[in-house]
Amino acid sequence: MSTKISGPGVRMSSVVKVYPPDVLALDNVDICISPGSIHSIIGENGAGKSTLMKVLYGITQANAGHIEVGGKPVRFASPRQAVRAGIGMVHQELMLIPSYTVWENVVLGAEPVTYLGRVKGEAALARVGEIIERWGLKLDCSAIVGDLSISAQQKVEILKLLYRDVQVLIMDEPTAVLTPQETAELFVRLRALNSDGRTIIFISHRLSEVLDISDEITVMRRGRRVMTTPNRGLSRADLARAMVGRDVVFSAVREGDAALDSSQRPPQPSPPTVPPCLEVRGLSMTVRGRGRPVLDDVSLEVRGGEIVGIAGVEGNGQFELVQAITGAVKPDSGSILMSGQDVTGASVMSRRRLMCSVPQDRKLAGGAGAMSLVDNSIMTHHRLRPSLSSKLTPLLLPRACRDFCARLIAEYSVVASGPDAALSQLSGGNQQKVIVGREFSHDVDLVLLDNPTRGLDVGSSEFIHAQILKKRSEGKGCLLVSADLDELLSLCDRIIVMYEGRVAAEFAGSEADRDSVGRAMLGLGPGPGRGPESEGVTSGR
Hints:
Blueprint lengths: L9 E10 L3 E11 L4 E6 L5 H9 L6 E6 L2 E3 L4 H6 L2 E4 L11 H6 L13 H15 L14 H14 L4 E5 L7 H16 L3 E5 L3 H7 L2 E6 L2 E7 L5 H9 L31 E10 L9 E9 L3 E5 L6 H9 L6 E6 L2 E2 L5 H5 L2 E4 L3 H5 L6 H5 L3 H4 L13 H14 L16 H13 L5 E5 L7 H16 L3 E5 L3 H7 L2 E6 L2 E7 L5 H8 L15 E2 L3
């Protein structure tokens, strides 16, 4: 059992962290987290907020500085030591074993055992059940975690910390893949924990949520703490200005069109006479071991000059849809057409000649972290752009490749030491700019975007949104898959909702709202007065 924290909940003083060779991630950071408060930490990608929390949680060791917990100096060499001191962390990427049950995941590493080392299964199960009942988490102890929704898995992560009786909970981007209804439920849960005396440290890029949940807010910029303030009389604009040092446009389309000049202003949604650049017809696919199809007779189309959004709770077929369109997987039935060409059986490279694609995982699918920006920027282009190769041999021209990369760095405002820097040395936002720049430099009619701003700060997101709007204004068709409902509502001309592998609803962008789309994402229907026959909503079939 951990010791209850009293006095100043957490105090970090003069914390310095340098990543070799000379990246100053934390520059003499001072921060005080009051006990029993909900304290949010915000900042641009690379501002140092995640690094600061990793230092607090024992994942990363600081080069200098001091940490006090409950008024006592501590130095954590591992997360296990942090948990023993009453500090726990729920990561954005949930750390659960899918094949284990709820209670097995919860007690893993902290199992009650007999003097012979045998796990007291019944005692552990009873203890986990008591905590579930006390906090109203509505979880089945014997359920297999892999069968649970993302929201339920997040409850399991919180349950792990309650089982260990932590008093400080660090929540890292906890709402990134939740619907509005699930986010509201999470906030009720966090406020209940806070009312019980627990301290919550909340990290998020969603400033409206930060304003909703926080008692105090700390803003970080370039490794320094620039502001800590009570959450009174603040607006999203205030926080964004403190984060990036300038005003930020939040509503990229619906409210932002008036601010664009005539060359940037998006056209009206494409009329039906505009040929589609993407047609998906009756796509179905079953994955071995799954009880139901991951794609079930999915049909949709995207026309030039429009942005079509795909909404849905993670795991409802969006990822498989993207994989099928790009050619990474083969569907069981159905067809895919790009600019009128049937590409259902075509290779990935053949499709790349007709589309550009920003994948959801920039580290695993979007780029190669250990390779240079030059190498990352010319991926695909080295096959499709003749100017990068010699006319006499298939060899690439180093000067042409470097010039291409330099133009991309300049055009997309990538902050890097130069073209030879490794992609992994850049912040998440700058890595994404490299990937978006590479893909958008490929002049094709179809733009496929899979969560292009996931984990990015408001400044980086605003920049990428502007690039998407530019493609739309050029008459390109954009298919935008996103877990960020605000992003979809801001950018899209139409929003298609997927649930259990099917198209559950379709909304005109101008008619969509958070509640109706959120209900459809949960399989509850669009809501009163917003059924398939309502204005602005079609069946999607």
